[in-house]
Amino acid sequence: MQGYLPLLIVLGLFLAMIYFLMIRPIKQREKKHDYLVDHMEEGDVVITAGGMFGEIVSMDEHTVVLKVESGATVRVTKGAVIKMEHELENAE
CA separation (Å) from 38 to 8, 19, 24, 84? Predict the structure, then answer.
């Protein structure tokens, strides 16, 4: 058993490193996106994964209807919304 102890320590450190460098950041990003989706309201200006800006006109359980600059409306899934416009302004 004494000969396996250093191997177990290295393995444990390796697994901890994988968790903190790969798994944890992904979970934090997912949690932040879920919070964003849960707190969207009509009238918010959002940005989709495709880079389209639009104002939320209506929402249902799985989709959001956005009014874009040209006046057209577009229906996208809630998962396609990646950011609110005010978050983009705060980052600058």
Answer: 42, 27, 21, 12
